[in-house]
Amino acid sequence: MSSSINHESICLPITFVNELSKSKDLPETLDLISHWLPQIIDADRASVCLHNGQEDTLEVYALYGNKAIEANTILQINNTMVGRVFQSKTLEINNNLKESQDFDCKILHGGGLNSCMDVPLQKSGACFGTLNLGSLRENAYQTQHAVLLECIANWLANYLHAQMEITEQKKRAETDPLTKASNRRCLTIVGNELLSKWQSDKQPFAMIMMDIDNFKQFNDRYGHNVGDLVLVTFSKVINQVIRTYDHFFRVGGDEFVILVSGNVDVAGKLAERIRLEVAGMTVQYDIHSLHITISCGVTTAQLKDDNLESIYNRADQALYLSKKNGRDRTTIN
Length: 333
Hints:
Elements (H helix, E strand, L loop, with lengths): L13 H9 L3 H15 L4 E7 L5 E9 L8 E3 L4 H8 L3 E3 L8 H8 L4 E9 L2 E10 L7 H31 L10 H18 L3 E8 L2 H8 L1 H18 L5 E6 L2 E7 L2 H16 L3 E3 L2 E3 L3 E7 L7 H17 L5 E3 L1
Parallel strand pairs: 12-13
Antiparallel strand pairs: 1-2, 1-6, 2-3, 4-5, 5-6, 7-9, 7-12, 8-9, 10-11
Helix pairs in contact: 7-8, 8-9
Organism: Pseudoalteromonas luteoviolacea (strain 2ta16)
Protein name: diguanylate cyclase
EC number: 2.7.7.65
């Protein structure tokens, strides 16, 4: 389906507008946009790029059709057509990708595309991303297509920006500001989701509870700034060790939790790997080289568990035994 256009109005598919109004979050909205754009303006590829917080890069957040540049690809702003559109806040058409010197255009042409069109997404004069179309045909995009895509981008920009703000607020509400780990509120949400999957489909998951041995001594001897440095350094090590589908939380003070996809053996091995990595790390402060150890308690979801608290309490008991038996060890309960 294509949209009709004249100088005073455009016509969009009703289904697109209705689906957009019902989208639950930013990823779903971006996927909807990339899915519908080729049906509104003839294209073999559609994507949405957003500024990802890095000063000189954009990220492909949603993609439909030709995969010459995959979703989640990071694109440099310099030496790319999409980056130039982002910086200049001006729509561009390239109807002969074969001759282009732009890095992204070269990749698109290598993937079989011959034309592309990029338009900025702007809110209050600031560009936060782009809409991107590509075609297998040469000379695919003309002035009328540019007018239509620009109108769609201007219409979508307010909606997208609002959803990005909501996403960012939600992230802040669920993130510990010091360590950037997820917080206890997020633990409850994610933990209950995993428990529900365990109860319905028996998808196994485990919990690792950790705290830093004798952490109070760092605060008492060196001050709270050093204590904070220890927490931040420790958290960075955890994020380097855990898998992308595990979940890391700070639940308070020096107490942390990891929710692990897998059984207790997987979680126990992960806990030991973390413990050894932490024991080998050094926290530099002034002329001091500080070494820390951690104690871990591990448990897994069991048939008798009807709430997350029972799993949490069992992990806490295992952690208590690790500390009671000399610290710097892992106990499985």
